Amino acid sequence: MAGIDELAARLRAEIGAQRVLTDRQELRTYECDGLAHYKVVPALVALPATAEQVAAVVRACAQTGTPFVARGSGTGLSGGALPHADGVLIVTSQLREIVEIRPEDERAVVQPGVINLQLTKAATPHGYYYAPDPSSQQICSIGGNVAENSGGAHCLKYGFTTHHVTGLEIVTPDGERVRLGGAAPDTPGYDLLGAFVGSEGTLGVATEVTVKLTRLPEAVRTLLAAFRSTDQAGAATSAIIAAGVIPAAVEMMDALAIEAAEAAVRCGYPAGAGAVLIVELDGPQAEVAAQFDEVSALCEASGAFEIRIAADDVERALIWRGRKSAFAAVGRISPDYIVQDGVIPRTALPAVLRRIGEIAAEHGVRVANVFHAGDGNLHPLVLFDDAVPGAAERAETVSGAILDVCIELGGSITGEHGVGADKVRYMPRMFDEADLDTMQLLRCAFDPDGLANPGKVFPTPRLCGEPPGRRQGVHPLHEPDVAEIF
Amino acid sequence: MAGIDELAARLRAEIGAQRVLTDRQELRTYECDGLAHYKVVPALVALPATAEQVAAVVRACAQTGTPFVARGSGTGLSGGALPHADGVLIVTSQLREIVEIRPEDERAVVQPGVINLQLTKAATPHGYYYAPDPSSQQICSIGGNVAENSGGAHCLKYGFTTHHVTGLEIVTPDGERVRLGGAAPDTPGYDLLGAFVGSEGTLGVATEVTVKLTRLPEAVRTLLAAFRSTDQAGAATSAIIAAGVIPAAVEMMDALAIEAAEAAVRCGYPAGAGAVLIVELDGPQAEVAAQFDEVSALCEASGAFEIRIAADDVERALIWRGRKSAFAAVGRISPDYIVQDGVIPRTALPAVLRRIGEIAAEHGVRVANVFHAGDGNLHPLVLFDDAVPGAAERAETVSGAILDVCIELGGSITGEHGVGADKVRYMPRMFDEADLDTMQLLRCAFDPDGLANPGKVFPTPRLCGEPPGRRQGVHPLHEPDVAEIF
Questions:
Q1: What is the topology classification, in CATH, of domain B334-417?
Q2: What PANTHER family does the annotation carry (chains A, B) (predicted)?
Q3: Mean pLDDT over all residues of chain B?
């Protein structure tokens, strides 16, 4: 590829030779993100260390018509950072400075490569933390969180990444550096900040992120309630929310997820549980104490046969260990698995669990369920053995059927993992043409040449491919070569 | 205007004769919104009763190249609903159905003409309310709230309109009906919902709004603390927030605002106060009780010489009466006044108050200050007598200088009233060209012909007027005739 060689030479001159990788062996390190069954080796990897270097790389891509994909820590679960075979992968992990912690304004300014948990560690001495906490928080980057609008166990009370980002500096797909938002809770003009957060790298690359810091709660209390069935645990969840309590987290695991966690980390959850709920309350001491009694009573009323209350931080960590290890733990009981991500209205929890059970039984596939139950965010883990012919296909069928159930019940095809490469094909099940066209107006406006993370989020771009007519202001989007990506 | 006559005939046929006004006398009713010193009589007023009728009007405008402006109740304070002299004013107040109240999902679906307070009244029997509460909540519409991303006294704790809208049906500027968002807390694809909320009618017209309902708090407690100076009241505000308490509201009034309120509604605030704070706490009984003692102590420590605690709803209403009447009350002590709207970081409160005092003194103008102190949202009321030559200009100068101070201190030119027609000229003080260009990419994508509320929000459209080149995908925006608008 002569084009790539020229681009590599230009980038080596502009950002430094050690920041540009073209060796096939080195490139392979970046062939996938957390969704490891999609693999594409990029043509070039750039490791810029400053915002201006990011802009230089993007400008070079724009001027040469080269597709580019941004990547943080590469922990995403929808293939959003899957490289483009003829494109540049821009890795932002070298931009890892915590620029500023401003407790008096409850704000922090960080570069995109800063690790989620590091920000919390830096804020803690000031009495603050960064609220969004994906399970991968020890390794995932804030830039990646911005791209995917990441959630986490505590998003029930505290919201998603989009609720904690107040300002961004980005590089647009034509290589220009601009600000979106700022430190204030609201700024005049369009809220493009909100559109950028969760745009999965299709509108540009974030180079600096201003976030809200959240005050460390005065008190945190955690309980584990064991139930005979997921129906009972679902009823308890509904009862807690209906009582007007908003816990920091309400997590549910079913029998199979518990079995996996026990095998992996010996979390010692109550024997014979068909489901467990982890309920965490935080806030002022007085509030937490009053609500804790209420939550315990509601769990009992819904059929909990054992309730364990964490007496201290160690016991609290023990309760969480099972939940936090759940995804990886499934590897102990199954050689392969798909982590699905869907959303339903909380009230549909018992219905969706029954439907998942039926679908699994019908196809002879095991499904372990781990939920952010409080906000109806499901993570069914579909187990299979890739060595068994047809098993992967059956698992894929079950996984897709679960999303259909989510849509049917008024939910969504992704709660926090994003669309990425993986769920592009489901978008038309959720949105009609006019909806997708309207969203793509924005993509076309920012990226008329379709170079920023092509093939992700949107199925075949209809709108921009239309002959000039009604939408005459919009330039045709270059058709991404989907076959090449997958 | 032959063009308008033809358009009127078409619209009469499509949506009914009684829904189309062209009589000059009738049109004059709509010549201004809440910012009454800007007046433009529209060429035609349409009063559609259904979403499809709104779409029909917008389509007719798009096909004939006619500018259009949407209007709710017309209570906006930035001239966002100021008509276009050659355009159609689309009044959405006939779309006033509360479509659905769903307490189990904490959602309501309303048409845009529904009055803010009516939604709360409809939700109250179910134990819920609609949190954003502009001072005009008795008459302002949800559609207008969406256009302006309206705030209110309780936005400190509960956030702005954008934090409570989860789904919209809109009519795009080419007359197409599309959905943005939904009932779920987050949906895949771009968050155009967030960009639409607060876009001040420049991206289309909302025809249905899905909002979050908020649970009525178990307890509400309100206190009034009187201080000798605004410095003391500002220090108390900072101390409360620094203590980790997030009150539902922290409102401040200075001596002149108190004088006005006394003259108008005899609210009986403590004599000799240089400033009062109204602090309202809500939430679980236990939390409110504990925090209330803490807030009282912090007010005393900051110099409060009298603290009144509302013993019941009547006393609570009495405390609020002075604050809620403050804008109108200023009319008792001054023939004319400008309601300014700016934001500063909360920590800059004492500094900004001193600077406002200096600016006012320098120009011989009186300024009454009413604040959402908790979130640093200022509403300086600049008093003047239009009968005195030069007084209006001096008031305008002071009003503008206050915004400059807000920007200088890291704040913003509007907290909740919007940019509208009034603050277009301040946008370049806050944003550089690249920032404004990036925002206008969205406007151009949605509205390449520049027909949706032209002349509002953005100063002269730079980007879309550029010769085809870098931004070649974007169609030139028709240059709005600013002179004609003002």
A1: Alpha-Beta Plaits (3.30.70)
A2: GLYCOLATE OXIDASE SUBUNIT GLCD
A3: 90
